[in-house]
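Final report, closing paragraph on structural work. Over the funding period we assembled a curated collection of sequence-structure pairs, and we close with a single example.
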Amino acid sequence: MKEQPIEVEGSVKVVLPGTMFRVELDNKHLVLATICGKMRKRFVRLTVGDRVKMEMSPYDLDKARITWRLRLPPPARRRPSPAARLPARPSPAAPRRARGPD
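Its predicted structure, as stored:
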């Protein structure tokens, strides 16, 4: 009977040549990971800082296969201050430019 792979999540720390990556797991353990064939086929690009889901063999916990790139949560949006929402008006104290003869 075939052993089931262990699914873990981590973040890419180093991009190595040959579609290899050094990934840090949530428990601070570093593993050497490669991307799976479907990700290669679809030209999924991974960069440093990406969150990934991986499968690890229970027999070798130093290597893994990246099966999914996780979406990062959207950045928190700041609401603009009420003064920033008002349209800009010229100040009444600003002198007007005199027009010359046409």
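The longest strand covers residues 6-16. The helical segments are 37-41, 82-85. We thank the funder for supporting this effort.
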